[in-house]
Amino acid sequence: MSYWLRLIAGIVVAVIGVVAFAWPEATLRVVAFLFGLNLLVMGVSRTVLAIIARETPVLQRVLAGAFGVLVTLVGVLCVQNPTDSLSLLLLIVAIGWILDGLGEIVVAFGRHEPGVGWRIALGVFVLLAAIAILVWPGLGLATFLLIGATTLVFAGICLVVGAIAGLRSRAAA
User: Which stretches are transmembrane (predicted)?
Assistant: First the structure.
């Protein structure tokens, strides 16, 4: 079940990234909604995975669940109030990505399952994107869209490839 959830989340996240690429002239409201939607999908899926992953150590499940809830709350902030300034939006998305990246790394670390390398790559990439946004807060909307859409597409691909690797290993077993 967890591989299917990751597969679905990966497809949704990649589609959101493609939409952000395809619609660069979108207003700040649309951009905030898309990135908030991404954070909601990732937060909810991370929380559900933490609940259903019985084979995962309790500490990792608790941390992943806590990160999932926090990412979900940040996503709600983006979706609920998308007309805030660009600086605040960038800060909220960066915080959400930091939490999501850390959650992905925590869950993947120490596990010996197929696709774990993709999960760690996803966490590191999302963390680096968040750091880039925080280090250069004066980014324009176009640059943010480029970094953000690239991050979403890459995150979606990592989730999909990791999920497929897990599904293939289960089918082979």
Answer: 7-24, 30-53, 62-82, 88-109, 116-136, 142-167
